[in-house]
Amino acid sequence: MPTCSTCTTRTAGPRDPTRSIISRSTRAWPxxxxxxxxxxxxRPKVGRFALLKARPIAGDLxxxxxxxxxxxxxxxxxxxxxxxxxxxxxxxxxxxxAAARARGVDLKLGRGxxxxxxxxxxxxxxxxxxxxxxxRVRGTLKTLDRLxxxxxxxxxxxxxxxxxxxxxxxxxxxxQMVAERQTHAMPEDRRERERLARRAGYPDAAAMxxxxxxxxxxxxxxxxxxxxxxxxxxxxxxxxxxxxxxxxATTQQRSAALAELGFDxxxxxxxxxxxxxxxxxxxxxxxxxLGPALLMELAAAPDPDQALRHLADLFGSLANPRxxxxxxxxxxxxxxxLVSLFGxxxxxxxxxxxxxxxxxxxxxxxxxxxxxxxxxxxxxxANRLRAVPASDVEATLTELRRFRNEEVLRIALHDVxxxxxxxxxxxxxxxxxxxCVEACFSLAWxxxxxxxxxxxxxxxxxxxxxxxxxxxGYHSDLDLLFLYSSAGEHGANHEYFAxxxxxxxxxxxxxxxxxxxxxxxxxxxxxxxxxxxxxxxDALDDYHAREARLWERQALLxxxxxxxxxxxxxxxxxxxxxxxxxxxxxxxxxxxxxxAMRDRMEREIAGESGGLYNSKLGRGxLVDVEFAAQFLQLAxxxxxxxxxxxxxxQALALLLKHGHLAPQDYTPLARGYRFLRxxxxxxxxxxxxxxxxxxxxxxxxxxxxRRMGYSGRRAGEELLADYQRTAAQIRGAFLRVLGGA
Length: 741
Known about the structure:
Blueprint: H1 17-23, H2 44-51, H3 61-75, H4 83-101, H5 114-128, H6 140-149, H7 155-179, H8 190-199, H9 205-226, H10 239-245, H11 251-261, H12 266-278, H13 290-299, H14 304-317, H15 321-330, H16 332-344, H17 346-354, H18 358-364, H19 374-386, H20 393-416, H21 422-452, E1 459-464, H22 465-468, E2 478-484, H23 492-509, E3 520-521, E4 534-536, H24 537-546, H25 550-556, E5 560-564, H26 566-581, H27 587-606, E6 613-614, H28 622-636, H29 648-657, H30 663-684, E7 693-694, H31 698-707, H32 715-739
Parallel strand pairs: 2-3, 2-4
Antiparallel strand pairs: 1-2, 1-5, 6-7
């Protein structure tokens, strides 16, 4: 009978040798770490931890690889595995007991040691690796990088754990080189410590011990945070929250408790709680810690009443509320993300409630990453569209809308939880729009080509405005310009490429069951609304040689290709746009024209009469900052290309660096721009529309202030005072920049 060379199990013929490896793999494992057999419940997690670093090293390597591949579903579970944290906690406690029995400092098993770093990394791998294949890697440092990329840890976590791991390993190696045995204990003898310090690159033992203590403290803090839920280290429950969550409480008692917690509509919210208490499986049906904990999160939300209403709707829509209750109990982070969203955005909450399955997909799997690269988004969308019949345009557009809605939810979840800077939000939203425009352009091109045949000419879609500068916000329109390479014989190409542009706009704006993708604005094209929708290279050249006005040159500062022939854009930029945009200007005349434009915007559009404020178009608003940056780029960009940038924040930094913007003007412009962009985001995230008006008083102002991170009874007044001060500082800097022309 033949023998399997990898596991020495005798076989009865040409059967698959990997079956023997899998079925008998526990023989090579310690007794406590074998996978389940019958009813033995908690032991498989140790086996799963051991398999995270498994790799074949001798014999039939292909068979070994196949065996590990077949074990993947066992190691990385498809569904979120909350019990793995409890297993890590028990293993850690056992390791700490062993370390406590030893004398001195144990680099591997002691508090803040190597084992804690490995447990931290491996627990997150097991928890999320079933949904994110990128986490299925070997090596602690490489896995830390992947966890950061997946948004599961912060850059600080990665840096502190990575640096500590390198230091601990280096010291461990230096100790073992001398001892010539496997030991992890720091030497107790002072002279030995001095020698170890020099071998490890420290000036003396004191420096080594200080560095080691700092790293171990960081590791211990990170590890305790990972195990906070499993260890039962929960925050103290507010008695008012406990009273409101009591299933036996009357509506009047609930209302009084909710009013004390800060709910604006305590009676209506008490009715919502009563509705939750009547539904089986909710956190409020029976006395349990989750109910008061959720109410404390709700009370901290920007709009507690709205958050509770959406939470009640969520549980009301679920066939199995108990499963979601268990999930929220095990994962306070999930509960916090949901409550933050429910209390911040009505339209995104309703979108999530239409698809409750997204709670698991967005919050728990790899797609909940804080930041996703454009290439990752593009690949994800391509995979999803491959599952849709190519001939079914409506199904393709529906899937595109689902993808876009899920990604906006992902970004918003982290945004409202405070995990993303406004620049990260804008970049993510812009990258998402890029990918959607690319997909719709490819679809439109294929449809027109199939119906009307091919053309020798090419076409490029150019992004302008916020999309061009990668500063897109929630509900921002997409400013697009359509350029094609040549008009063809008798101008035949114009109609052809106009059809593609019209089809693209239709795909982006068509309302379907999942909504529309984006609103499109083409008014920044040559001659504005009076000009043709698409323009040829020669026509663009002729227009900019004769007619281009200052506002058009401003707009083109943000031009970049978003879909189609990038080489055509490069040629157009080099031969037409760059010479037009950066030709010498009369700075005094340009400043006068820009000031006149701002005056018209304030008088005719901003609507700031009667003490109202417009954060975008009003006095000291976003447009002041953008105009200041654009004016200086037009003035200096011809001689100094290094100050050119489509992004306003980057342009300000470059102008400061090269001496064209005074520090006393840079500070109010840059800080004010960040403040106003965040304010714009918090204004627009609530409803499914663009909003730039700042409320003057009442509950709306208070809720806006809470979304901005202000707290206390005077939060609204403090926000308004900060806005007035910021706008005044921006306007002062804007006038100095243009007045210094």
